[in-house]
Every structure is written in C-alpha cells, then in structure tokens.
Amino acid sequence: MHATRKLWTWLAVICVLSFSVLGWVGTEIYLTAPPIPKQVISTDGKILFSEGQVQLGQEAWLSAGGQQLGSVWGHGSYVAPDWSADWLHREALALRAVWAQQEFGKNFEQLNLGQQAELDAKLKNEMRVNSYDSKSGNITLSPARAQAVAQVVEHYVGLFGDDPKLDKLREQYAMTSGVLRDPRDLQALPAFMFWSAWSAATDRPGETGISYTSNWPHEPLVGNTPTAGAGIWSIASIILMIAAIAGMIFLHSISKEAPDPTPPKTDPLFDLKPTPSMKATKKYFYVVIGLILAQVAMGVITAHYAVEGQSFFGFPLAKILPFTVSRTIHTQFAVLWIATAWLATGLYIAPAISGHEPKYQKLGVDVLFYALLFIVVGSTAFGWLGTLQHSGNDFSFWIGNQGLEFTSMGRIWQVLLFIGLLFWVTLLGRGLMPALKKPSESRGLIAMVFLAALCIGGFYATSLTWGPHTHYSMIEYWRWWLVHLWVEGFFEVFATAVIALLFTRLGLIRASTANSAIVLETIVFLFGGILGTLHHLYFTGTPTFVIAIGAMFSALEVVPLALIGVEAYKNYQRSKAAAWVQAYKWSILCFIAVGFWNVVGAGLLGFSINTPIALYYMQGLNMTAAHGHAALFGVYGMLGIGLLLFCLRGLSDRAAWSDKLLAPMFWSLNIGLAMMVFISLVPAGIYQAWASITQGMWFARSPEVIHSNLMETFVWMRVPGDIVFAIGCVFLALFAWRLLMGGKRERSALKPTAQTKRV
C-alpha cells in the first residue's frame, strides 16, 4: 500500500507538471503565431485582400468541407491538395513567369540556364522576406508578386466556384461544383489560402531561413527545406527512445512479479444477475454494431472517391453524398461507436463491481442512450443537409459541419455531447461509489477507471475552446488537446484499467499486483503522452521549441509498447488457465489483438511518421492514414468489440451464444485490416513520400500522383482487404442478431400459454 501511494503521488506530480508545460506552450503559440494582416497591399497602392478577409476565408473553407476537403499545414484529408502547399507552388511558378516576361520577354522554360538561375535566386529572396508591418498591420508585396497572386486568386475563385474549365480538376479533387455560393466567401477564401502559404515561406521576424511553419511544406523553389532542428531532434528522440526501451526491459527483467493466482474452479461471474440498469445497456451495444456497419459503408464510398471523384461505379453519388460528407461520417462514426462501447461497458460493470444498484440508475441509463442517439442522428443529418444546401458559415459552425477532422459536429451538438459525457460520469460514479468507499484490494483499479472516465468526459470541454474567428494555429492546438489526449492518453488508461479489472474479477490476476501495475503503466503512458501532443503541432505556426519537446516526449510514447507483446502473451496463457475461461475466449483474443495492433499500428507505423524529419516529408500523406487505421480500429476498435462481447456474455442467453460466428468475425476483421494497411495504404504512403522528398509536398498531393496509374492501383488493391474486413463486420452483425432472436425465443418459451394456464 505504501508503494502504491508513492506511485499515485508521482502520477499527480507528472500530470501537474506536464499540463503546466502544455498550457505554457499554448500561450507561446498564441503570442508568436503567424500574424493575420489587416490588409495585403502592393507597393503601388493596390489592395489585394482587405481587412477581415483572411478570417472570413478561413470560415468559408471550413464551411466548404475544411479538413475533409484537402488540408492546410498538413492536417486534413488526402484526395484534394494541401492548399497551403498548392498555393505556394502556384504562386512561385506564376511569379517566375511574370518576371520572365517582364525582364526577358520569354516564357521561363525558354530561358537559358543562367537566366533561370537568376530568377530562381530572386524568387527565393522575394518569397522569404517578411514584409509584415506590425504598426499598420499590413503585408506589402511587390507589383510583380501582386500580379502573380491575382492569377492564383482567379484559379481558386473558379475552382471553389463553378468555372466549367475546372470541372476535370474538381473531379480529381473529389469536389463538387459551386461549393461556395456566397460571393463574399468566394472572394475571401483565397485570402486565407494566401496567408497559409505566406506563413509557410516567409521568414520569422529576426530569423533567416526558417518560416512560421518551420519551412513546411517541402518546396525547393522557395527554399523550404528541413531545418537543422528537425534533424537534430529526430536523432535525439530516437536515441532517447532506444535508451528508455532498454531501461524498461532491464527493470522488467530484474523485477520480481508475483505469479498469477490459481484460477477458480468455476466462472465467478456465472451466477451474476444483471440489474435493471445493466440490462438497459444492451441496446447501446446494438447501436455500436449499427454504427460500425455505417462507418464501413462510408469508408468504402470515401476510398472509392480517390478513383472516381464524383461517382460510385458510374453513379453520380456526389450529388447526394459528396466526399466531404462521406468522409465526415466515416471519421466521426469511428470515434462515436468506440466511445459508445466504452460508455456502455462502464455503465454495465459499475453495479456488477459495487453490488449496488443506485435509485433511478436504469432511468438515467435510458435517458443517456436516447440523448446520445439524438446527438448522433442530429449532428449527422444537419451536417449532411447543411453541406448539400450550402447553408453558410454560421450554420456550419453552430449546427452543421465545422470542417475539423474528428471534431466536425456543430457547436450545439458538441455542447450537448459534453453534457452527455458529464452525465455518463455521474452515472458511473453513482454505480462505483460503494466500491470506492469500501477498502479492498481492487479499490485502486476502480479509482483509476473512474478517474480515466472523468478525464474522458471533462477533457471534451477542450472542443468548446475555439470560436468561428479563432486563429487557425490555436484551433489546431486545442483540437489536438482533445483528439490526442483522448486517444493516446485517457483512452489508454481507461482501456488498461478496465481490462485489468475484468481479469481480477475473473480471478486470473491478483488485485494487489494489478493495482501497482496500473498506476505505474499510467505514469508511463501520460509521461510521454501529455507532452507528446506537440508532435501534431510541429508545423502549425508554432515556436521552434515545439519540435524539441514534441519529438522527445512523443518518442517516449513508444516505450510502454515495447512490453505490450509480453502482456499479450500472458493474456493468451490466461485464456487457457481453466476450462470455463473459454466462455470469454473471444473477448480475451480481442484484448490480445489490441496488444498486437498497439505494437504495429501505434508503435511501428506511428513512430515511422513521428520524428520531425519524417513528418516533414510525410505529414498529410497515406502513411498517416495507415497509422490511423491500424491504431484507431486495431487498438481501440478491437478493445471496444472485446468489451462488447464481454458485456453481451452476461446480458444474453448463453444457449444463443455462437463461437462459430465469432471465429470468422475475429479473424476477418484482423486479417482484413492488415491487408488494407500493408497491401494498399503503406505502399501508397511510401510512393507519396518519395514524391514529397524528390519534388515537394505539392507534387505528392497533386493529381499527377494521386491519380497516377500506380496510386489508383493501390486504391484497387485495397478492395480485397476491405471485402475481408466487411465480412468480419457481417459476422458480428449476424452474431448479434442470433443473440437477439435467441433471447426472444427463450422469453417466448417461458411465457405461459392458454393451455398451460388451464393445466
């Protein structure tokens, strides 16, 4: 107990210090972010962009699809370009062409090598000089550059408007015609795109050769190449990671771990009678399965748009379900079904652990269910309709689709979801309170489950921190507070604690050992995980020290994954500890799959793009998608399914349980995911990385690469894996249907008939 108390103290100290540093970094980002100009003018007095247009353009882009329609500074989807890289390249080419005509009367390609070299050097100087005046708030451009900017503005207005000459390009970008209908928005959008590219190429005040985005994206034309810090801190982070893994393995080898206890002769939970609130969670799990099927269907459509940008095998699907909507639903439902599975698991196990059913607990579980269902349906429907009807910026922000990846639902829905999560924490706390008050060996585990749940609910408040006019750098800062700290922080803690608690209840591990182990693992997770948030913010207009902190601490996130394979093997051994454990075989195998995908998806694929030098070339490419699919579904999705199966085991008729359906479900999901990632996404990501390194980020995201024969072949090579994965989802649905129908038949058989009543 004394050792555990020390660990809790260390955990508190690490959390306080880490969040203090993360908060301080936020203030520095706010103070040093790329300035938003009042006006962009030329030296001959012409106004290119007027006051407020940059921020209005940001709102317009987000309402048009935002991070579901290409990306800015690398964050977003992968079919349309990264607009900051695209604008920067187009402006550089246009400026060179203007000078070639003005000075030599020829096209740039017709000049000799000396003349081309002269203009290339002049271009770098022109694009890198910081002409922002803090007193007037204006950015001043030369007349030649103003002429080049005007050419790119014309292209963007036509692209986001309805210029028929750009129909083919829109199809390649998976865009629909006229995504912006308001003329003010259409004129303002290029201002935001210009500003994002200007921030990426212009030197920071008082520095030379380093832009506000630390020279991202890679663009040799303007001298955007990796900074020295990106290389140095990448090397340092790898050294630290190797040293930390070696240290952890050494400590694990010398530590004396108590052996697992002798398992009970019978299932300790066999006679567990579900309380009314526990029974009420059953409908949550069926909604989870429905959301999985919907997410997979939207994933198939979204992936196909990479080949046919506006059609699905010739059918003009984009007229009713454009790419921005299908991808929004695909990413949003992934988070929602995983979170719903975890919420339901918490509500199920709380009375089972405490042995107490609080008053009105079932009513609370029912109210929360219908509230969450209302939020899911409402946010999806309004986001979809708002996109189709081009309802404007205010509608998109407040009730439609905010255009931000994983946090896309409108603000009203976010507020309602936050209230719902707090209500969930309240219900969970009511159920666990007797167990938390009663001294026991498991109390530390129960406390960790509740604290993780409290953080999951409480930290959703970070999605409410930005407004429609917030600086884009600060939106990214707060967005990653939510996405990263949820996924790579509190979800990890909740998952680990819940699995340990279930194993202790089954008598397969000692509660005393699990108590200390969970606190220690939480320390390791959060020590790297909290400040590891910054690895998402290397190139989003942040100070250069963000690269150093993010690189070092994100490397530590990989350290605990080094021993997950050992833990997975132990779980496999526990699955054979007694004959009755086979009743939980597929839940335990899902937990083992979580360990595998933690190592492969979060560890290997995650760290492959984590270092600053790797991310510099690969941010916003398919290697990110490979990591995202393997980690999000492989780790948290498989955990959600494992918890779902565990809870349904206690809520369903055992005679209706079918391992014959669960076996193909489990193997199809895992094999299909592996095929999808390693046959399609990883090769596509490597090809794009080559394009980014050799020519620039603009090229890696251009139609020449995205719609090349090789890339489209990689998309088609994804089909076998998708089919195998979809088969696994179908088996899961069939399994759930069998449970439901089997339970109904059982209840029907128990009802007395008229004849039996007479007897």
Automatic annotation (TrEMBL):
Show the InterPro entries listed in the entry.
Cyt_c_oxase-like_su1_sf, Cyt_C_Oxase_1, NorB_cytochrome_c-like
The transmembrane segments are 230-251, 284-307, 334-355, 367-386, 412-433, 445-466, 478-504, 516-539, 545-566, 586-609, 629-648, 669-690, 723-741
Record keywords: Membrane, Transmembrane, Transmembrane helix
Q: Which domain of life is it from?
A: Bacteria
Domain Nitric oxide reductase subunit B cytochrome c-like: residue ranges? 37-218
* The protein's name in its UniProt record: Nitric-oxide reductase large subunit
Which species does this protein come from?
Undibacterium umbellatum
State if Membrane is listed as a keyword: yes
What SUPFAM superfamilies does the record point to? Cytochrome c oxidase subunit I-like (SSF81442)
- Which Pfam families does the annotation name? COX1 (PF00115), NorB_cytochrome_c-like (PF22085)
